[in-house]
Design brief:
alpha+beta, Outer Surface Protein A, domain 3, Lipoprotein
């Protein structure tokens, strides 16, 4: 009786053991349970997002270049032509009818020319008034405009161009200077940085380290020295490139759009994130 009872007890245990072994094999090999057709099916390739194709190219900040002034080049040529007949006789000798004033000034058909003991030259003639100092400085007032040069290399050019293309250039000895003319107002610091303000292009601010800003027809563009930047264009949205994290700056909860001020509820600035205000989404 005991043998029969023990045999009856062992049979369910063996059946249970067999059942666990079959379940483990099925769980360990789930691929074997799937049909072959399901194994060979491959997912379709993901198509590129359409939004990336519609994103415009990030514009570059225009380079600040002092334009060729319409009045300066003719003024320079007129200055050289006027001085040519003054400087040429100094190198050689020439015999021409002339008379001198009491102070030693030479008077001829070209005007009055005087050179003092220190080498300073003064010429007043049809070509204009030229005052040249021995140290390299001097002034020239003629049809092309007014040029003033200092001994350290600095100076100003007030050029009169045709058609009202007048311009004023101021140059410092360090290479810095300003230009005010038809192209706008340009200011350079002599170290690679500068600003350019014109009616056509807007305001360009070049920091000289690879960064700068441009507020013009294409919106407000900011480029940092590390290559990152932001663009708030005519469409009213901002595009931000990846950049290093910056310290947090406290923001005002008040929003600038009118609907935000009318809603008057906590978190009113969030309404700018709705699709009705795309211009404010990047500012919040």
């Amino acid at each position: 009786m005991r043998k029969t009872l023990s045999a009856v007890i062992w049979v369910p245990l063996l059946l249970a053991g067999c059942g666990r072994g079959e379940g483990q094999r099925e769980a360990a090999d789930p691929a074997g349970a799937t049909p072959p057709a399901a194994q060979t099916a491959a997912p379709p390739p993901a198509s590129p997002p359409v939004a990336d194709e519609a994103v415009p190219e990030f514009p570059a900040i225009p380079s600040i270049v002092v334009p060729e002034i319409a009045g300066v080049t003719p003024a320079q040529r007129a200055l050289e032509a006027s001085l040519q007949d003054i400087l040429d006789p100094i190198e050689g000798g020439s015999v021409t009818p002339a008379r001198c004033r009491d102070g030693g000034s030479l008077i001829n058909d070209a005007g009055i020319t005087s050179v003092d003991a220190n080498g300073n030259l003064l010429r007043n003639g049809d070509g204009g008034l030229f005052d040249l100092k021995a140290d390299g400085s001097g002034t020239a007032n003629f049809d092309g405009g007014l040029i003033r040069v200092n001994a350290d290399g600095s100076g100003t050019i007030n050029a009169s161009g045709a058609g009202g293309d007048d311009a004023i250039i101021q140059v410092q000895a360090s290479g810095a200077g300003t230009y005010n003319g038809p192209a706008g107002l340009i200011s350079l610091d002599g170290k690679g940085a500068g600003t350019w303000n014109s009616d056509k292009s807007g305001l360009v601010d070049n920091h000289g380290d690879g960064g700068g800003t441009w507020n013009g027809p294409r919106g407000l563009i900011t480029i940092n020295a590390d290559g990152s930047g932001t663009w708030n264009g005519p469409d009213g949205w901002c595009r931000t490139a990846a950049m290093a994290p910056a310290p947090s700056v406290p923001r005002r909860a008040k929003c600038a759009c009118r609907r935000c001020r009318r809603c008057r509820r906590p978190g009113a600035s969030r309404c700018c994130r709705s699709s009705h205000f795309p211009a404010h989404r990047a500012a919040i």
